[in-house]
Amino acid sequence: MTVLPLSLDPDVMPFSEESLPTPNVPAATPLLDRDHSILAFNRRVLNWSERPEVPLLERLRYLCIVSSNLDEFFEVRAEPHVRACLEAQGTGPYTAESFDALSAAAHALVARQYQLYNDELLPAFAEHGIHVISHGKRNAAQRKWVQEYFEREVRPLLIPVALDPAHPFPQVANKSLNFIVKLSGKDAFGRENPIAILKVPRVLPRLIRMPAKVSEGKTLVVALSSIVRAHLHAMFPGREVGQFSQFRVTRHSDLAVDEEDVKNLRTALRQGLQHRNFGQAVRLEVSADCDESLWSFLLAQFNLPQGALYRVPGPVNLARFSQMVDLIDEPRFKDLRFTPYQASYPINLSTGQSFFDRLQRSDVLIHQPFESFDGVIEFLREAVADPQVLAIKQTIYRTGSDSVLMDLLREAVRRGKEVMAVVELKARFDEEANINWAEVLESIGAQVVYGVVGLKTHAKMLLVTRREGRHIRRYGHLSTGNYNPRTARLYTDISHLTADPQLTADMDALFVHLAGQSRLPKLQRLWVAPFDLHRNLVARIDALAEAAGEGKTTRIVAKMNALTDEALIAALLRAGSRGVKIDLIVRGACMLPAQVPGVSENIRVRSIIGRFLEHSRVFYFRVDEDESLYLSSADWMNRNMMRRVEVAWPVTHPVLRQRLIDECLVAYLHDGRDAWELEADGRYERVDRNLHAGEPGASRAIEAHGAQAALMGRYAFRGRGPGV
Predict the structure, then answer these.
(1) Is position 458 annotated as part of the catalytic site?
(2) What is the pLDDT of residues 97-135, one digit of tens each?
(3) Does residue 698 belong to any structural domain of this protein?
(4) pLDDT (tens digit per residue) in 344-357
(5) Contact 704, 690 (CB under 8 A)
(6) How far apart are CA 691 and CA 358, in angstroms?
(7) Positions at the binding site for ATP
(8) Which of 274, 415, 433, 589 is the most buried (most CB within 10 A)?
(9) Which of 522, 540, 571 is the last residue before a domain boundary?
(10) How far is CA 4 from CA 362, 492, 583, in A?
(11) Catalytic annotation, pick one of 81, 252, 458, 477
(12) Domain membership flag for residue 213
């Protein structure tokens, strides 16, 4: 079949219903700071909480997502900044000055969060009869119910610690809820010990729905912190409670294990997990009205500079307010949520048809979450059930603690198939789940390996080996995302099913390398980090620069989650200076200077923040009419290129390649609703406009388009399969 290439020029719209003209796309500044870029990304996510057209519970959800993201930011990125401030460092990548600048940006973002929470979201909830009710606003019946709940569910788990030489400051776990209390009077032994700490166990829900019998026809939610606060006096009989505050400390939580010096990585990581909750403190959150004597005491206790103090006018654990979305579940509140989206069954698949028969004809692409991840699950299910399947090999990075795919691998072992699982134990914050899966699979006879010492295995591969007559044939699945059915409903990713003998042979060679650590042979289709992926990308970009210098028409469009690798940035800048037209769709951190006069006028950067988390990695290169497109598990970050096992692979079928160009690149270059453009001064400006405004000959007004909304509409009419 001959397919005419769909132009990647923004003058051509991917969807036939409308045709949008070129948006005005400015861009960025020379080398942008990575950490500030991460905070800027979260500011863009927070914008969804600010939009009045977004359903109210979803606005709260985005607010909580930002809080969760900030928690991870502090856990992973803040420690060297804090250390630089404490040591008054004046030179190097981290200084006291850089800490102050980052702290100011983080404080501004947090202040905006609580302003939204208090001044917009809570009043909007109240208009719907939904209240987060404080102690001062509870009537007698409600106070009685709260007291009974406290005595029954909370008090038995609380142990207050009054500080003295025999009772030192207790270990406070990462991100846990605690109270600091100033007491007057003397203890049972006649001694003065004015400071007490009360730790609130994690097993208790942070939000509780009050029953209808005391809610007066309203929907009342009470925070656990409010319940504890109202009954602090009961925890210190014979003492008078004076100043007090809730507080939460965030700790550096990146696990550091010397893989060269441990005999069993799994055992070492499990031991390390026990200490993660008690790493170096990097942030302290207290109530806005916390007395200076208390917060200064806590800063000294955790050895933190004052810039690490966040005095917040509301709950210190704002991320946990995502529970409210689940508590408000009545049908009458359905308008406060997004209309549920049901993914269509993959358009290139038919239910009941054998995957092996289908893949012998041609490859299959699944665009998640617009198409259902069920296609991938059913592929593995058929492989497990097929008596002709001899072996199954799979990488496991983030599958979740409850995974149907892991259950299928266990069933494959039970049926006598050879199962090899490459389990990445160091997947950040998924270590425990992956350790558990490794132990389960090993216990039933699967071959479990942990990749290569010093590298994370981030590649997403599933390989099935099948006997067909006198021949052995391989079938593979490659993906830009994880084998996690839950996140497959929330992240945009591309799954690629193939029986291509060259591509599947490369996958098999990589599995052999990961298991035996033998020398990786020369591969035919796969680019693999840390071996040749980085080098090949730089070479491809430089080749386009040479072609542009020869007067050829050149184009690069790359979609990824982050761009921080300086060698790739330098290659892009070289190419742009030679005349290559470059569009970068980078969801999160981006350090590249774009459209800076005299530096990068030919490079544009935009970020798409939508209902789904943008996660697919798609790289497009064109010289005149010769075009190539790669999918990848890797972002353009140094860690992905040098310290991980990653893969990129070409999509050569013209129909499938054109579909990816259409849906993953062109659609996003025309997004007029959820896109942000990086300006030359380093700021992101939201694209929120009718892209047809002022277009000569325009016959009617057309609303701004969002790429994700357009794709949801496109697949809504493709028919419903099992869905997700």
Answers:
(1) yes
(2) 999 999 999 999 999 999 999 999 999 999 999 999 999
(3) no
(4) 999 889 888 899 99
(5) yes
(6) 41
(7) 69, 491, 587, 615
(8) 589
(9) 522
(10) 19, 26, 21
(11) 458
(12) yes
